[in-house]
């Protein structure tokens, strides 16, 4: 018979890399938000789930169960085989630890495949995340990167992470770069997924002597940054990155690849067009339409983003402790690595 485990027990086993989590909810539920790193092996697809839900509401509970049994019976061999091919210890979960995870765990147990079931399912996990983000004490020294748009802050942090340094990638958790153009080419995450990814890295880096993250505002796209990150920012060592404008332009063009998303770029630009001096705005739009992306980016930086950054940087009243003047992102990485190791 299968064994129930709590979210906390599950978290402990995962921290030791002793457990694979399997979300048996439908693909759309999984895509909306799940436990980071979990696999999706749905017991019902979206259409089947909708059909059973309709029977449950409009006919009877028994009719829904019978139809569910009929659907599951037809796919059992392939379903069981998929689980059997995963060699590690496994834990399954659904929305609230109900019929889908119970059925999965029971059937697998009968076939000699031992799995845990997470008590309370994803709903219990979400509650755990919210509580942890309110209660957690995060002690590592924080290094916060500041810099004008295009300074490569996210690229620098990701290169630092590749080198083994502890990093909190807030924009990565959000699936958004934070500006009006920030969602272009990215799959945005909702608040539930952002919180889960943030907590995962907070826990993973809890014993690190320091951690690095970007100086984000309270909001990143539609995401709200939790209080604990804003509190960490107030006590941080603040680093300003200064890169030449040519390097910043290259970084932006490389990040956004406007030739692949030109319609989105123009639509986003038109949301801020009225805030830019009319002749300049017309020239920026003309450059975008004629694929002169470097010129468009240069004017956006000069006439919109740099003045905006100068104004907003004074709002937090944060004293810059260090300045990195670099010729490129790679040069900035070298200097930042020396700074945090001192």
How would you characterize the overall build of this protein?
There is one protein chain. The protein has 15 helices and twelve strands. It has helices at 7-15, 27-32, 46-58, 61-84, 99-110, 121-135, 153-162, 170-174, 191-204, 227-234, 245-256, 262-272, 278-289, 293-312, 329-341, and strands at 3-5, 20-23, 39-40, 90-93, 115-118, 141-147, 167-168, 210-214, 219-220, 223-224, 237-242, 320-325. The strands form three sheets. The protein has a five-stranded parallel sheet.
Task: Tell me the layout of helices and strands.
Layout lengths: L2 E3 L1 H9 L4 E4 L3 H6 L6 E2 L5 H13 L2 H24 L5 E4 L5 H12 L4 E4 L2 H15 L5 E7 L5 H10 L4 E2 L1 H5 L16 H14 L5 E5 L4 E2 L2 E2 L2 H8 L2 E6 L2 H12 L5 H11 L5 H12 L3 H20 L7 E6 L3 H13 L1
Parallel strand pairs: 1-5, 2-3, 2-4, 4-5, 6-8, 6-11, 7-8, 11-12
Antiparallel strand pairs: 9-10
Keywords:
15 helices; globular; alpha/beta; 342 residues; 5-stranded parallel β-sheet; single chain
N to C succession of SSEs:
EHEHEHHEHEHEHEHHEEEHEHHHHEH
What proportion of the residues form beta strands (DSSP E)? 5-15%
What is the SS-derived class?
Answer: alpha/beta
Distance between the termini: 54 Å
User: What general outline do the C-alpha atoms trace?
Assistant: globular
**Averaging pLDDT over every residue, what do you get?**
93
Q: Which percent bin holds the helix content? A: 40-55%
For the biggest sheet, the summary is: 5 strands, parallel
Low-confidence stretches at least 5 residues in length (pLDDT < 50)? none
Number of helical regions: 15
Strand order in the largest sheet: 1-5-4-2-3
* Tally of DSSP β-strands: 12
The value of Rg in angstroms is 24 Å
